[in-house]
Specification:
Layout (H helix, E strand, L loop, with lengths): L1 E3 L7 E2 L4 E2 L4 E8 L4 E2 L4 E11 L4 E2 L4 E3 L5 E4 L4 E2 L4 E3 L2 E2 L4 E2 L4 E2 L4 E2 L4 E2 L4 E2 L4 E2 L3 E5 L2 E6 L2 H24 L29
């Protein structure tokens, strides 16, 4: 982990969380239990406070930041896809923010919502629970189904397991020069893309 204090404030990482060594945490950052922070994620708590509650994940190349005096929060079991940007917003319990989405200042995403990939959520947008947000600017498309929430919850559980797997087995190595015979596959549980479950 690349951990930096600023103005005497040091990031906090729960021992059960996994933060990839290439991730950068600066200042007022609090990473709770069973969280996963992916490669090259940046949590820059040099103005506002950044909080990942229990079981949340923040995937590869995500950015969290906020204006002075604000809290940027991913609530319990929040799931933030690759490349998303969260700035001074709140992501509700068990919600998913899709890849490359941007959630702006003062926006609140309610519980069990899904923000589609590449969506732009305007500042101060208030999204009711169980909403599907799509587009740029993002608009509520419809309610999220029980099946979609079950799929999202399973995916988040896989990231909680990934935090454990990473703590137990991830290490920096030199690459092999050729593919070995009978090369094994990663034995993680199978979570299919949502379109395959419809």
């Amino acid at each position: 982990m690349q951990i930096y204090s600023i103005d005497g404030i040091i990031p906090v990482v729960d021992p059960s969380a996994y933060v990839h060594p290439s991730a950068v945490l600066i200042g007022d950052v609090i990473v709770g239990p069973q969280c996963y922070v992916g490669p090259n994620a940046v949590l820059r708590g040099d103005f506002g406070r950044l909080i990942l509650e229990r079981g949340a994940n923040l995937q590869d190349t995500c950015v969290m930041h906020g204006f002075p005096g604000t809290d940027t929060i991913i609530e319990e079991n929040g799931h933030i896809g690759h490349g998303a940007v969260l700035h001074g917003c709140r992501i509700g319990r068990n919600s998913l923010v899709g890849m490359n989405s941007v959630i702006m200042d003062g926006a609140v995403i309610g519980e069990e919502c899904i923000v589609a990939a590449c969506s732009f959520v305007k500042a101060q947008f208030l999204c009711p629970e169980r909403s599907m947000l799509v587009g740029s600017p993002a608009k509520i498309l419809r309610q999220v189904s029980d099946k979609e929430i079950a799929w999202k919850t399973q995916g988040t559980a896989e990231y909680q397991q990934l935090a454990l797997r990473s703590q137990q087995s991830m290490k920096q190595v030199q690459p092999l020069s050729a593919v070995e015979p009978n090369r094994p596959r990663i034995s993680a549980e199978s979570v299919q893309p949502l379109y395959k479950s419809k």
